[in-house]
Amino acid sequence: MIYLDNAATTKPCGECKKAVCEAMENYFGNASSLHKAGTASLTLISRARTAFLRGMSLGNAPLSGTVLFTSGATESNNTALLGLNLRRGKIITTAIEHPSQARVIDKLEKNGHEVLRLAPKDFDDFEGAVIDAVDENTSLVSCMAVNNETGFCIDTRRLYKGVKAKNSKTFVHIDAVQGFLKIPLDGDLISVSGHKIHATKGIGALYIKKGVTLLPLLMGGGQQNDLRSGTEPVELIAGFEAAINAYSYKRGLFDSLKALLLERLSEIPDIKINSDEKCLPNIVNFSVRGVRSEIMLHSLEEADICVSSGSACSKGKTSGVLSAFGVSDSDADCAIRVSMCAENTESEIALLCEKIASAAKKIRR
Ligand code: PMP
Fold first, then answer.
1. CB distance 90 to 117 below 8 Å
2. Nearest residue (CA) to ligand 1, atom 9
3. What are the Cα distances from residue 225, in Å, to 10, 36, 213, 218, 252?
4. Whether the Cβ atoms of residue 12 and residue 199 lie closer than 8 Å to each other
């Protein structure tokens, strides 16, 4: 199988699998227990927090604050946005957010918060536009670091600095699911997910900057400083830590794979590229005009190639996100997302393009 759907999920790496098995064997104690087995689990969790903080700053000065382990980024986004218990005021967000963020913002809007949603298609300098929109009434800026459908990437450190300079009381929440370990991050609250970086599903994290207070979403036994009740899944946390330590973003490899993909796609008639130079190179979105995404997807599946028709979360439906990038509805209907990991090769990309060319020829006839 040629797997090119790494923005939907990634295959757990060997280091992760090994760490999960080892933790099941040796770190099965409840981290809240006062005996030796409990303490061992607690120590493992605190070591994983350090690895996580290191991963977020990517070699820059580590961020100071706490880390909550969650079930994934959906929970992290919900915890961040609902836990802030925001005063009424303006929320600035974007029209390209993942539903796990967007639906919560919709709810806040229904509850009386004013919401401004900015679209990248309207601005050359998107971070600048978000910063410009901040005023004394802005309670929150919430946006993603890297878009899951196109790879569009923002500089969260510039955003954070710019927002705080305009209003130091404005909270900044970053959904960094597709950016974690790929770009340096900053924010008051940062959501990430394990299964996008070769850890398992069912584990994620929320970074909380020092000084930011949150109300818990989950109440119960008071684990994780009463911020997220529930027995910590030590095995999954061990796998997450191992995957973080093993991960290295191969920017050069992705640049060359993307260049090859674009070159081969340019040889096929009527292809429109939807991921520009502002996008990270591991995600490439394009439209094969005249061939609906679903049809192309199934045709590639017959050749044992897995790609996506958009985000897996929208189950093949066009999400509206592409239109915020200026992609027409008819092009969005024909969109294919190729998302790569470090194991993908030039020959896989070449074969993908061959199959797209032949499918397009056959279907367009
Ligand atoms: N945000 C983004 C940008 C995502 O890509 C995803 C996963 N598709 C999520 C949030 C949700 O993450 P999880 O699957 O861990 O709940």
1. no
2. 73
3. 31, 20, 12, 12, 41
4. yes
CATH class of the domain whose range is 250-363: alpha beta
Q: Whose CA is nearest to atom 8 of ligand 1?
A: 8
CB within 8 A of 358, min separation 6: which ones? none
Quick check: 126 and 154 in contact, CB under 8 A? yes
DSSP 20: H
Q: Which CATH class is domain 14-246?
A: alpha beta
Domain ranges of the chain: 14-246, 250-363
pLDDT single digits (tens) 151-166: 999 999 999 999 999 9
Question: How distant, in Å, are the alpha carbons of 218, 336, 344 from that of 143?
Answer: 23, 23, 29
- Nearest-atom index, ligand 1, CA of 100: 10
Instruction: Work out the average pLDDT over 216-242.
Output: 97
| Residues forming beta bridges with residue 93, ordered by sequence position | 117
Taking phi first (over 0 means left), then psi (-120 to 50 degrees means alpha), and beta for anything else, what does residue 151 get?
left
What residues pair up with 65 in beta bridges, in sequence order? 209
313 is catalytic: yes
Is the pTM for the entire model greater than 0.90? yes
- Residue 193 and residue 57: Cα distance in Å, rounded? 16
